[in-house]
Amino acid sequence: MVSFLMLALLSTLTLGLPIAKEAKALDVKPKVEEMSIEAMATYNTCGWSYQYSQYGNTMTSTTKVMIGGAAEDGGALGAFVGDECRGIQSTVSKPPFGPNAFKPMYQMTVGGNAGETITYKFCKGGIEYTTDATDTFVINANLGNVIFPEVNTFVAPPPTAPASCSDWTFDHTEYENSMSATFNVGNFWGVPGTLAAFVGDKMIGLQTTTSQPPFGPHAGKQMYQIMMYGNGSGDTITYKYCWAGVAYPSTRTDTFTVNGNLGNVLFPEHVTF
User: Which helix (H) or strand (E) covers residue 128, if one does?
Assistant: First the structure.
């Protein structure tokens, strides 16, 4: 009886679940978050603009961006022909499989004409990083994939400084986010000057006037209450102090945090130059 029941059950399973004659190929393409038209058209941090509707032909690339030996997990990759932007990707993909599982990659569509030379830039914290890597535009080509991505190493531009810090200017309108800080300037205590915040060589905050709170442990002492701006959290902030036309750097660094607040008039942060 047991043997009969086992045979019946096995026959039912075999007949009820037909066996495929051909193995269906496994689709391992990860789901990529689609960018909005606005994101495809512009990337304001570095002033890039891509006229995506201008080109009838496209190619794609999957790239791992390396800076200082590490794969970049934030910023934007841009493709260019000369000075004209032909593609922008600011959304990172992290495939959950393969030899590069969960590692950041940039999957970008590039518009152009056959035979054009494509160069690349990477924008992070308002700084344009460059690479020697180039490609030739081939219609419908696909450079790299999530299993074997292209690997491009980018380097920062050489540092540049204004001729005089008296010329410092700053426009906060290109940024979406902000944070605030209250500083006393240790070795310039009582000496009026200008405090500036930077990410790389790009200024993200400028304070030319001081506050003198009439209360608390620092009553009557000069403090700089500065607003700093960025697009998202994570950038490293450095500081400079301008006095008599000379810019003095500080060794202090902070991390930009959206809506963050460093110090206050009762307990200000301390920075020396």
Answer: strand 127-136
- Whether the CB-CB separation of 116 and 84 falls below 8 Å is answered with no
Identify whether the C-beta of residue 231 lies closer than 8 Å to the C-beta of residue 45.
Answer: yes
- In this structure, which CATH number among 3.40.50, 1.10.10, 3.30.420, 2.60.40 belongs to the domain 30-153? 2.60.40
> Number of helices and strands (H, E) in the chain?
2, 19
Is the domain defined by 165-271 classed in CATH 2.60.40? Answer: yes
From first to last of the 273 residues of the chain, give the pLDDT tens digit.
444 434 343 343 333 433 333 333 333 443 333 334 333 445 556 888 888 788 889 999 999 999 988 999 989 999 999 999 999 999 999 999 999 999 999 999 999 999 999 999 999 878 899 999 999 999 999 999 999 999 999 998 876 555 468 778 888 998 999 999 999 887 665 567 899 999 998 999 999 999 888 998 888 888 999 999 999 999 999 999 988 888 889 889 999 999 999 999 999 998 887
Location of structure tokens 């690479």:
131
Rounded to 10 degrees, the C-alpha dihedral 82/87/88/91 comes to: -150
